[in-house]
Amino acid sequence: MESIPTNLLPDEASPAWMNKGDNAWQLTAATLVGLQSIPGLVILYGSMVRKKWALNSAFMAIYAFAMVILCWVGWGFRMSFGDKLVVFLGKPGVALDEKFLLGQAFLGYFPTATMVFFQGVFACITVVLIAGALLGRMNFRAWVMFVPLWLTFSYTVAAFSIWSPNGWLAKLGVIDFAGGYVIHVSAGVAGFTASYWVGPRADKDREETQPNNIIMMLAGVGLLWMGWSGFNGGAPFAISSDASLAILNTHVCTATSLLTWLLLDTCFFGKPSVIGVVQGIITGLVCITPAAGVVQGWAAILMGLISGSVPWYTMMVLQNKVKFLRYIDDPLAVFHTHAIAGILGGILTGFFAVPKLCRLFYLVPDWDKYIGLAYGLQTGQTSAGFHQMGIQLGGILFVVCLNIVTTSIICLFIRLIVPLRMSEEELHIGDESVHGEKAFALFAEKQKYKKSKINSVYDDDDEEEEEPSHVTSRSIGEVQMV
Which of 172, 184, 204, 378 is 20 to 30 A off residue 54, Cα-Cα? Predict the structure, then answer.
């Protein structure tokens, strides 16, 4: 019988410090988050736009995922979680060395390789979310440049400041359980800012905004919803009671937000809207993210009521009353569903955060830190509660300003090299002009077959219907009050 090679001894493959259950869950959670982007957002984006932009929209998401993964292991991870370079940024470095990857992560009882993957898919989905505000008109070559630049000069700064143990906002005590600030406020503000610089879609595309496939749209948002179990459930970096609470609160808040949006649509428009339900799901998921494991279930319900109503109001009412909001073309309403909902989540976290749950998550004994304002008022620690609320608001202000400035600089720099917006011909034709391909190529071939002389017996009634030339009162991102 052959002896086992010494470099494969069990104690080295499974060191004493590693918890196999935690490692397995963290890899599973990371995969669930990855599935939110690929195929979740790919399906969602490809189905929520007009059919002529289905391929380009899905392609933007797939490219971003691949590019971010390589940039992340190349320099992004260590800039976000490595040794401090300056007060808001870590030192760049490659995260591919065997000794580095197989050692214990800076948090959790699993290898650094697991942490790199988990945090990497978070970085991926953030950039993919920005794409939702730029669909249907951004030059693909400009997008190719935008992705690595934004990851490097914006995402890493927010991640290091808020999530790294060495980050200045982390040391102050900002609560961002799973990315309400780092991911959603960042993506919402960056997408809105980039939309300003890229410019609007073609007039006809802004007028005809109905999705090309609502059933597939529901499939995409369903993957997003279920994948959020890994998004928020993986934040404690352990199979813990806090992870279980975070997952349950996530689904409770999201269900409440969905039903709230549905009720408002029915009351004000007379009919329940499927598109509205999708928006309600997303706002609920985003709002609970910074608070998922540090609030009680009743607070999650209240957060769902707020996340299903305030973004509804900003999208359905303010969007049409505020001239600046009308001017910015945001096809999938990323500003409302991510920036507004993320800001609400951060503020409500500062109000509802339970000190005991915060200590379970942050593993700190401090009684004067991580105290929600509601509990501060209840226990006589009013100043601590207001202090926490101030930190939450300060974190929001930092992320908003960071993304307005960095995104603007990046767009202006790219504009010196390539146009940010597609040509008029590309805007008119769509996918076939940009990529030389069609999303529904099989259907197109069927139409050619029907028109052939041999099959001239086919009736014209079977031909593809023209896209509607009208806009319903609940078209995505540009809703009109009835």
Answer: 184
